[in-house]
Design brief:
ten-stranded mixed β-sheet; disordered C terminus; binds adenosine-5'-diphosphate; binds magnesium ion
């Protein structure tokens, strides 16, 4: 099957959806500065670089406004100085548009500027200095020339679409036209019919586009309209113009086609086959425009003119012989060349009455163009969705689809550097600079036709070969074909007179029979020979077909091997992917098991750690325990030692007393009661008996003495620091201890001196 692309209905596709990823290009704005006229002296435009110009306020203006005028700079895609040739301009601006046209993309080119700034010069040119229009036509026809379809094969319908006619229908229509026209057209050869536009197209500058699809057939249609006072007029309409009683031409309406593209309803679209023919059509329209302007007292600078080049193309069939008879395969693209009205304000030309009103309309349409561009720019820059007032004027309405659909839009701002134009020029520049900020969807490449490339070429080669072989055969067999035939006829025995006048005539009939028999025989021979030649040619053709088939077979074989190769490649890649997948899986598994191991190890470590902490705690407990035990033991021992020492002391005291008593007895012969040895039991007994700690007795010397039955021992309780630390750390542990010494540890009061007696006291 075929890849269907743009329908033959319309040159433009419906607008791309907003917000989608459409590629966009800014409107390309170029500036062209024309040379200063001979009568003008002061120049107010200076080219600063090849993309920037500067406007200088003329001296008069500066003086008027106290020199407050700014030196404004404006930048464009490119600035063309006064020395730029038409050719250079075309190469930069025209060529890309024509190349796009050939590749089924739409283009729109404006010239914009004040009257006299060079718009028409740039678009149309002058003799010897052809402008963008003739050059575009020339490039187009030089490129598609040999691939053009026969006239009337493509036929515009009246709904902005394009139909295909069969070869036969096209031929019939051609014959019909030829019979109607007294002078047959001569589309080929560069003939300069009209001296008025001689040299507009110079053959020595002939150039060509590369990469034209030669498996397509092309046809060019041109239309030319004028928009004046917001009315559209067809400049190619055949209606005869009556110079004596001129009636105003009928204006045309804008319509929207199936795909929402605007077109001028009922507008003539003339099929042209060469640059000359196309330019001739243009020139005819130009003349008509001029006549109408004079007759109707119009000012030509106030009209917009639109010259449209429409290119229809359709692929050749698989044999490369005929156009594919499928309307859906027709692609139509168009290039609009627009020479806008002068952009100056009305006040400058002092127009009056209807002229003023017309001027208002002209201005209105340029104003609308300006507003549309402004709104578009605002919508695009700030994401707003304001309505663009395309419908407010015919010019903007007609080109609506270039801005909200797709296409390449180019504008050439023309500027006359003379001082008088300064103010208008600065307005023009401001608008043009702003227009650059508007973006238009880039036309997309059309899909490639599904048929194999090189069809036309192969078909041509086949035809050449066929005619060569036929010629060869002709040369060897029947070199002088008509002569041979005549000879043959002459060599036939003449038919004798066959009038039977005499019933007894037995000569005539047999004669006739014989002659006819001979003739019949010769005829048979000729037929035989003819049949032989026929089979011969047939076999030749078969051979050709065979060669064609084998060629195709070869192509198929090649493609099959290519497919095989690709399949193999894809298989190896699949295999590789498989292996990689497996490796990944393995690594993943490894990772998982390692992670698991890590986790168990961590757990074990944690367990060990907690075990160790527990052990440590236990050890600490034990240490404290032991320490406490030892401390108690020490204290016990110290106490025991103390008691022992006290006893010893007591014994010594007793001995001393006895000694004293002996000494005293020897003096007073008085004997004393023998004191007893102190003991805990005795102390208790004594306390039970309400005895005070000392007894008074009479000394031998007649005095009294107090005998202390209890030896007062002084004990200092001085808690030490280590005890505190133990207490602090293991209070609970210690408090539960049943040690007999615990009290003194638990309540380490202030430094107290106690008697041992008090200690024994229950209160
Ligand atoms: P517009 O169409 O803008 O009113 P025209 O194209 O008619 O202006 O130009 C006015 C005059 O200036 C014409 O005579 C034209 O030949 C001349 N002219 C304009 N531009 C150039 C240029 N770049 N080089 C030489 N002559 C020019
Ligand atoms: Mg002009």
């Amino acid at each position: 099957g075929f890849v269907t692309f743009r329908k033959g209905k319309t040159p433009r596709r419906p607008g791309p959806k907003k917000g989608s990823n459409v590629e966009k290009d800014p409107v390309g704005v170029y500036c062209r500065i024309r040379p200063l006229g001979t009568e003008d002296q002061e120049c107010c435009v200076e080219m600063i670089s090849n993309s920037t110009i500067q406007l200088h306020a003329p001296d008069g203006l500066k003086a008027n406004r106290n020199g407050e005028f700014k030196e404004m700079q404006y930048s464009f895609k490119k600035v063309f100085g006064i020395n730029t040739t038409q050719m250079e301009l075309f190469e930069d601006i025209g060529r890309p548009l024509v190349e796009d046209l050939i590749h089924s993309k739409n283009g729109l080119l404006f010239t914009y500027g004040v009257t006299g700034s060079g718009k028409t010069y740039t678009m149309t040119g002058s003799p010897g200095e052809g402008g963008l229009l003739p050059r575009s036509l020339d490039l187009l026809f030089n490129s598609i020339g040999p691939f053009q379809a026969k006239r009337f094969v493509f036929k515009p319908d009246d709904k902005n679409g394009m139909e295909i006619q069969s070869q036969v229908d096209a031929l019939l229509e051609r014959q019909k036209r030829d019979s109607q026209q007294s002078v047959p057209r001569t589309p080929s050869s560069r003939l300069k019919a009209d001296p008025e536009f001689a040299d507009m197209i110079s053959p020595e500058e002939a150039c060509k586009c590369d990469n034209v699809d030669d498996d397509c057939c092309y046809s060019v249609f041109v239309s030319y309209i004028e928009i004046y006072n917001n009315y559209i007029y067809d400049l190619l309409e055949d209606a005869p113009f009556d110079p004596i009683r001129p009636k105003p031409p009928q204006s045309k309406l804008l319509r929207e086609d199936q795909n929402h593209n605007m077109y001028v309803a009922g507008c003539m679209e003339v099929e042209v086959k060469s640059t000359e023919e196309a330019f001739e059509v243009f020139w005819k329209g130009q003349k008509k425009r001029r006549i109408a302007n004079t007759q109707l007292n119009r000012e030509s600078s106030r009209s917009h003119s639109v010259f449209t080049v429409k290119l229809a193309q359709a692929p050749l069939d698989a044999d490369g012989d005929h156009i594919l008879q499928d309307k859906n395969q027709v692609t139509v693209s168009q290039l609009c060349l627009v020479d806008l009205a002068g952009s100056e304000r009305t006040s400058r030309t002092r127009a009056e009455g209807s002229r003023l009103r017309e001027a208002g309309n002209i201005n209105q349409s340029l104003m609308t163009l300006r507003t549309c561009i402004e709104v578009l720019r605002e919508n695009q820059m700030y994401g707003t969705n304001k309505m663009v007032p395309y419908r407010d004027s015919k010019v903007t309405h007609l080109f609506k689809n270039y801005f909200d659909g797709e296409g390449k839009v180019r504008m050439i701002v023309c500027v006359n550097p003379k001082a008088d134009d300064y103010e208008e020029s600065s307005l023009v520049m401001r608008f043009a600079e702003m227009a650059q900020e508007v973006e238009v969807a880039r036309p997309v490449d059309r899909p490639i036709c599904a048929l194999a490339a090189g069809r036309r070429h192969r078909n041509q080669a086949f035809r050449d070969e066929l005619s060569r072989r036929l010629e060869e055969r002709g040369n060897s067999n029947n070199a002088e074909d008509p002569g041979l035939l005549n000879q043959l006829i002459e060599s036939l025995p003449p038919i004798p007179r066959c009038e039977l006048v005499d019933p007894a005539d037995d000569q005539t009939l047999p004669n006739l029979i014989e002659v006819l028999e001979r003739r019949h025989h010769i005829r048979q021979m000729i037929t035989e020979q003819f049949n032989q030649t026929g089979t011969c040619v047939k076999s030749q053709v078969d051979l050709n077909q065979q060669s064609k088939i084998s060629e195709k077979d070869k192509v198929i074989l090649n493609q099959r091997s290519e497919i095989d190769r690709l399949e193999k490649k894809s298989k190896t890649l699949e295999y590789k992917i498989d292996i990689l997948q497996k490796t990944t899986d393995m690594y993943e598994q490894d990772k998982r098991s390692l992670q698991l191991e890590l986790e168990t190890r961590e757990q074990r470590l944690q367990k060990e750690l907690s075990e160790r902490r527990r052990m440590e705690q236990r050890m600490q407990g034990m240490v404290t325990d032991t320490k406490l035990k030892w401390e108690k033991e020490c204290e016990r021992r110290v106490n025991a030692k103390q008691l022992e020492m006290q006893n010893k002391l007591w014994v010594k005291d007793e001995k001393l007393k006895q000694l004293k008593a002996i000494v005293t007895e020897s003096n007073s012969s008085c004997s004393a009661e023998r004191p007893q040895r102190p003991s805990r039991e005795r102390d208790r007994d004594r306390n039970m008996g309400q005895k005070r700690s000392g007894d008074v007795f009479k000394t031998r010397g007649g005095g009294q003495a107090v005998q202390f039955t209890d030896i007062e021992t002084l004990k200092q309780e001085n808690p030490t620091a280590p005890r505190y630390s133990i207490l602090r750390n293991e209070e609970s542990f210690l408090s539960s201890d049943q040690s007999p010494f615990s009290m003194s540890f638990v309540n380490p009061g202030p430094r107290v001196w106690r008697t041992s007696g008090e200690e024994q006291n229950p209160h």
